[in-house]
Amino acid sequence: MVVLSQPPTLDFNQYSLLRSTCKPTASFADIPEIDLSDPNAKFHIVKACEEFGFFKLVNHGVPVELMTKLEDESLCFFKLSKSEKDKARTPHPLGYGSNGDKGWIEYLLLNANPLPIFSHDFLCAATEYVTAVKKLSCEVVELIAEGLKMERRNAISKLLKDEKADCCFRVNHYPPCPEMQGLSGLNNMIGFGEHTDPQILSILRSNNSTGLQICLRDGAWVSVPADAAAFFVNVGDVLQVMTNGRFKSVKHKVVVDPNRERVSMIYFGGPPLSEKITPLPEVLKDGEESLYKEFTWWEYKTAAYKSKLADYRLGAFEKSPIC
Ligand SMILES: C=C1C[C@]23C[C@@]1(O)CC[C@H]2[C@@]12CC[C@H](O)[C@@](C)(C(=O)O1)[C@H]2[C@@H]3C(=O)O
Ligand SMILES: O=C(O)CCC(=O)C(=O)O
Ligand SMILES: [Fe+2]
């Protein structure tokens, strides 16, 4: 029998943390929208990665039923009792997790290469979804290579296609929060604190609830309008290094409306652990030097997992300027 879980409860510290850090933010209609069927998509993607480190992807070819099937399966999991869900807590960081220092969230974090056996129906839906999104992520980075006029169209995609590629997949659930609903003046709270994603790129899909916010170059936070049929793509820290800072890893966070349930599914495309991360030679102009020290993805990931969510993780890997 499936037992519905009790809504999570807030203690005083969590409550102050969640409410104190959010201010209302304007919805931002100018998020770059890339139509994958547009022959110039590659140039628009490069421009969006340079200006925002973020874009919306439409006409991507992934059937919406594949998305909703996994969303439904995920909700079946999150509706289980706490003790059932706790059975999916595996050694940190993978498996089921909740709240912690991130915000008002519970999640499943899975290794995408290959996906672990979980429940049969969840596994089928997740496998189908991850296969489609992985293919899409390779298409996107191949367009990036073309847009950057690189000879090796597969310079980045070969890392994601590698059998040892360190990719992971996450489903986030931001449950409605009854304790917040009754409080006047509070119509939003931190679901996932501000951070950048460490990998090459992330592909996100959410249900029709808003919540995702990105930080623009001038430091302003803007809210991304929800679109359950689209994907949203983030430049990650590794892609920032591979483009020698030409693309910026976008700072983002989730601020949720306590009256609405949000579900998001994110594929994080990372390279093999042993891969040396350096700027792609094709991206460097004559005489341009790398802004970063050489490191492997394993070294970066290890350091990232020791850091706090909001830390500027690339800082430790930047070369000090020569005066
Ligand atoms: C606090 C942390 C959570 C995180 C690992 C980290 O130490 C810093 C980066 C965080 C992040 C952000 C993007 C992804 O959601 C994630 C899975 C990742 O690879 O880096 C999370 C990590 C996590 O939740 O375990
Ligand atoms: O849940 C979301 O919409 C975004 C979550 C996120 O940024 C992450 O999991 O890294
Ligand atoms: Fe993220």
UniProtKB/TrEMBL annotation:
<dbReference type="InterPro" id="IPR005123">
    <property type="entry name" value="Oxoglu/Fe-dep_dioxygenase_dom"/>
</dbReference>
<dbReference type="Pfam" id="PF14226">
    <property type="entry name" value="DIOX_N"/>
</dbReference>
<dbReference type="GO" id="GO:0046872">
    <property type="term" value="F:metal ion binding"/>
</dbReference>
<dbReference type="InterPro" id="IPR050231">
    <property type="entry name" value="Iron_ascorbate_oxido_reductase"/>
</dbReference>
<dbReference type="InterPro" id="IPR044861">
    <property type="entry name" value="IPNS-like_FE2OG_OXY"/>
</dbReference>
<comment type="similarity">
    <text>Belongs to the iron/ascorbate-dependent oxidoreductase family. GA2OX subfamily.</text>
</comment>
<feature type="domain" description="Fe2OG dioxygenase">
    <location>
        <begin position="164"/>
        <end position="271"/>
    </location>
</feature>
<dbReference type="GO" id="GO:0009416">
    <property type="term" value="P:response to light stimulus"/>
</dbReference>
<protein>
    <recommendedName>
        <fullName>gibberellin 2beta-dioxygenase</fullName>
        <ecNumber>1.14.11.13</ecNumber>
    </recommendedName>
</protein>
<keyword id="KW-0408">Iron</keyword>
<comment type="pathway">
    <text>Hormone biosynthesis.</text>
</comment>
<dbReference type="InterPro" id="IPR026992">
    <property type="entry name" value="DIOX_N"/>
</dbReference>
<comment type="function">
    <text>Catalyzes the 2-beta-hydroxylation of several biologically active gibberellins, leading to the homeostatic regulation of their endogenous level. Catabolism of gibberellins (GAs) plays a central role in plant development. Converts GA9/GA20 to GA51/GA29 and GA4/GA1 to GA34/GA8.</text>
</comment>
<comment type="pathway">
    <text>Plant hormone biosynthesis; gibberellin biosynthesis.</text>
</comment>
<dbReference type="GO" id="GO:0045543">
    <property type="term" value="F:gibberellin 2-beta-dioxygenase activity"/>
</dbReference>
<dbReference type="GO" id="GO:0045487">
    <property type="term" value="P:gibberellin catabolic process"/>
</dbReference>
<keyword id="KW-0560">Oxidoreductase</keyword>
<dbReference type="InterPro" id="IPR027443">
    <property type="entry name" value="IPNS-like_sf"/>
</dbReference>
<keyword id="KW-0223">Dioxygenase</keyword>
<dbReference type="Pfam" id="PF03171">
    <property type="entry name" value="2OG-FeII_Oxy"/>
</dbReference>
<keyword id="KW-0479">Metal-binding</keyword>
